[in-house]
Design a protein that fits this description.
Two copies of one chain form a homodimer. Chain A is mainly beta. Chain A is built from one helix and eight strands; from the N terminus they run E-H-E-E-E-E-E-E-E.
Chain lengths: 124, 124
């Protein structure tokens, strides 16, 4: 058993949109990721996803039940849970550092495959 | 869908050792708790537990495979995952604020019942 420092783990990579695995428990992964810019719209059929902002500001865009686009500004020390099935798009005007909590095997781009899809995230 | 502020949720209670539920996803709970002093030695037969320190310093005591007692100092922005079956005891010389990720239904005192057991944590 050992402790994990979010800051130390975040210092091991600089690229955006590519989550790293930093912990595993109960079939879930704890990941860290850096976002900047606009991601791809997607959803996850079977996974809820938690986004906890470690540093910076995340804008989570999503489509509510009526199909209307909305967004939430999520700052340092705040989190949002995106339920399975909900179309969403993480965005960040400036770099934001985020902790993810989601089932092991969750694909970053959900139902979409594009150049930013990471099939097998690294463990750091 | 709404965001959750750790600071705002932490401001809603002052007591120690009584986790509050602040989120649920994939059958897991996100909880916040304040610790001060020494908790009871216990383990969880079926649940791994993550302790992420939001503010302060946590000393996690545990018994390793050989039965030897060890401890880890876990500071702000650090986490530790206690695997199922491992005897452990959270301690804090001064108040520490901790975020927990664990399966819904995880009992704070695990295999032990005592005056600090919380059968049904409140949602805040």
């Amino acid at each position: 058993m050992q402790k994990v420092s979010l800051r130390d783990k975040l210092s091991t990579f600089q690229d955006h949109w590519s989550p790293r695995i930093v912990g595993e428990l109960n079939g879930q992964h704890v990941k860290l990721v850096k976002f900047q810019g606009e991601f791809v719209w997607h959803h996850h059929d079977h996974e809820d996803e938690l986004f906890l902002v470690v540093q910076g500001k995340l804008r989570m865009e999503f489509r509510d039940e009526s199909g209307e686009e909305r967004s939430l500004e999520v700052g340092t020390g705040e989190f949002v849970i995106v339920p399975r099935g909900m179309e969403h798009r993480p965005c960040a005007a400036e770099e934001v550092h985020v902790l993810l909590f989601e089932p092991a095997g969750t694909l970053n781009t959900g139902n979409v495959r594009d150049s930013r899809t990471v099939e097998s995230p690294q463990t750091v």
